[in-house]
């Protein structure tokens, strides 16, 4: 059992499953806020589609993280955990792109905080 992998994957599972659940539970509120957030960007007419893509990536990353925890405990392997980290990085890059596009530099900076452990996971797992 790899304590680093378990803690990192727990972090990613909590981060992405909670975020995905929030998007599902308040879809209309999220779409409304994001339409305003991206009103001056090329995404202004595609907010629901973009949100759906991010939601799908978040759910995949979170589920892979949970599966990676189970795999690490049962077989001491980190393959699924590595995939979880890679999907997490892709998801965070999509989010970073959106924040930069919207010129929300504080939001972009916050995403980097999540990106650091995810990219370390890709490197170490």
Automatic annotation (TrEMBL):
GO terms for cellular component: membrane. It is found in: Membrane. Keywords: Membrane, Transmembrane, Transmembrane helix. The chain crosses the membrane at residues 49-70, 82-101, 107-124. It comes from the Bacteria. It is a multi-pass membrane protein. This is DoxX family protein. Pfam families: DoxX.
């Amino acid at each position: 059992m790899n304590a680093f992998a378990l803690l990192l994957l727990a972090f990613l599972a909590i981060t992405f499953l909670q975020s995905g659940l929030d998007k599902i539970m308040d879809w209309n509120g999220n779409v409304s806020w994001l339409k305003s957030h991206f009103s001056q960007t090329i995404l202004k007419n595609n907010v629901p589609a973009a949100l759906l893509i991010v939601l799908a990536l978040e759910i995949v990353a979170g589920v892979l993280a949970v599966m990676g925890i189970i795999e690490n405990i049962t077989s001491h392997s980190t393959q699924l955990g590595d995939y979880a980290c890679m999907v997490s990085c892709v998801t965070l890059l999509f989010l970073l792109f959106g924040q930069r596009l919207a010129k929300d530099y504080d939001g972009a900076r916050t995403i980097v905080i999540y990106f650091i452990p995810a990219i370390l996971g890709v490197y170490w797992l």
